[in-house]
Specification:
alpha+beta; three-stranded mixed sheet
């Protein structure tokens, strides 16, 4: 038996897809202490994923770790 999706179901599927997309592109947040102990791994992840990593210190964002290619693309887009 085939199931037909109407407009409400299509809207739900779209919202789920947008939520997944937002999660995949959202920057990650990491405490400075974690960066100190896992720096090589986090740099590799930033390079492979293209997602920035926000570094916090005492609960406040203080720096961003980003791969060079993404940084250069953003810089060129702004200039």
């Amino acid at each position: 038996m085939a199931v037909k999706f109407g407009k409400p179901a299509s809207a739900v599927v779209l919202l789920i897809a947008l939520a997944v997309f937002a999660v995949l592109l959202a920057p990650r947040v990491m405490q400075l202490e974690q960066l100190k102990t896992r720096s090589a791994e986090l740099i590799r992840q930033a390079r492979e994923s293209g997602r920035p990593l926000i570094i916090t210190q005492h609960g406040k964002a203080t720096a961003v770790l980003q791969d060079v290619e993404s940084f250069q693309r953003q810089r060129e887009a702004l200039l």
